[in-house]
Amino acid sequence: MAGYKETPRQKMISMMYLVLYALLALNVSKEVLNAFLVVNQSMVNTNESLTEKVASTYDRFQQQYMLQPEKVGPNWEKAKALRNQTDAFLTYLDHIKMRLVEVTQQEDSATVIKKYYRDTLVPSPLNSGEMVSKKVLDLSIVPNKNRYNDPTEYLIGNEQLKNGEAYKLSKRMAVYRDSVITTMGLPDSTTKVGLITNYLGNKKIIYRNADGQKQDWETHNFYLTILAADITLINKIISETKVAEFDALNYLYSSVTEKDFKFSNITPIVYTNNTYILEGNNYEAQVIAAAYDKKTNPKVRILAGNTPITDNNVNRAQLIQGQGGIVNLKFPAGKPGEHNYTGTIEMVNPGTNEKTKYPFSFHYLVAPPSLTVAPLKMNVFYIGLENPVSITAPGFADDQIRPTISDGQLYRKDGNWVVKIDKPVPGNMVYVSATAVVNGKTVLLGKSPFRVKRVPDPAAQIAGLTNGGIDRNTFLAAGAIIPTMKDFEFDLYFVVTSYTFATIINGDWIPQNVNGNRFTPEIQKLIRNARPNQKFFFENIEAKGPDGTIRSLNPITLEIK
Question: Smallest Cα–Cα separation from 356: which of 292, 400, 426?
Fold first, then answer.
């Protein structure tokens, strides 16, 4: 604080700055929040996929129960009990997510659902292939994702009393985990089932914070963590629950030997690694007679186009002999475009010993090599900055793509591609290209040009102003010239290296050359003693940018109110 007696207004301004600094110290960066949103969305997508897989297994299980109720019945009853336990636990986890949003936003459940939940089609947990409407939390539109006090109060509560919801959660996780372990006949110390909290069997698990101090599972995961992290972790627990259910269900299903099943019909399935093929390569797939004896040798007939195979066109179909219940298909990927095929798989029915044909169809897409390179913030690369870019190629995973740049640097940072150019380049253009190895050969995926520009000049400001009237106390509190970037997507800073100050007192021109951006004690004294309508001039403002160049910024003229 100042050594002189402050006015009430000056005290208020000083307090506001202290509060601002505190808020800045506690602020969670936008990049961290975005990272949580990406991970959370990945967990949501994974959970939807797991839901579909579990539903498919329940469908197959029920079909076998209907065919052989006496044989399958005991395990089917265990599967239904597992389904009920899982539904109850998942409902509880969804309740925790809603309560977290309620306490963080200080809103009731009806308001939370209306504002932050979206009607979305998700896989039905009971019927494979069926989509149902469900209200799903959209974390990206929740305003206070970086709040941690309210979530901590709800999840941890009193650390001594252990009365927060996280302690109830860990107990319910343990109960569900024990149920799955019992169903599968595994020891309680197994690591094959997740949902592990404070104990693994009889062994207590010790967690430690960054300072090495011991913590329990609840404090380690939920103490002073932001809402975005809490929601992501709950979705991870949901994922572990679904995986545990899937493993237990498959254990029950496989315990009834599938080779003894008597199927009333067979559905052919086409498996393929990829339906998007680069020109010059091959399309590969497997046609499998689902849940059928591997000793059979099925026959497949394939016909190009969308016309089903009949007695009239069967002579034009290609015959492919299979072994072990599997028929391997291989077609050259020549002409780009979509390729459609129909076919039949011929099996011997074990009940009638007669040949039976089952129709199927499939398609795949052949495309020439292509490359997509897109800057994530602007359509140019700026000198001296780390320009994030997205580099993708349809049909290729990220780790298969090998990008290069004609000038500058291209490297990975925090999981993303970044381009950095340290100096001007000839023609103000650079080129990003990429290759990939396909079947042992290096293939050029494409080449994209980008303009190279220097970072635009910032606007020099004092207390957010470049001219006009200003309150004396606001003027003094500002204390410096701040270069500000307007309508620019990147977070970057210019440093004011020098400026010329001047004012007029009793007709005399009072100048001063200053290094840096701060007001000198003499300037502060002149402002403090200034009369109303007295003008202050800040000119010849020089600033250094991230590219190392010195910029001359706009002058500032302010008048005491």
Answer: 292
Cβ-in-10-Å burial (0-12, 13-18, 19+) of 463 comes to middle
Residue found by looking up tokens 């991870």 in the block = 236
β-bridge mates for residue 289, sequence order: 268
CA 556 – CA 540 distance, rounded (Å): 10
> What pTM, to 2 d.p., does this model score?
0.45
End-to-end CA distance of the chain: 24
Could you give the domains of the chain? 26-260 (no CATH), 268-367 (2.60.40.10), 372-453 (2.60.40.10), 457-560 (2.60.40)
Distance CA 432, CA 450 (A): 8
Neighbours of 343 (CB within 10 A): 24
* Range 292-307 average pLDDT: 75
3-state secondary structure of 205: coil
- Pairwise CA distance, residues 392 & 398, whole Å: 7
Q: Give me 85's structure tokens.
A: 């336990």
Distance of alpha carbon 161 from alpha carbon 265, whole angstroms: 60
Q: Read off the pLDDT of residues 217-241 as tens digits, 9 standing for 90 and up.
A: 988 888 888 888 888 888 889 988 9
Q: Are 122 and 136 in contact (CB under 8 A)?
A: yes
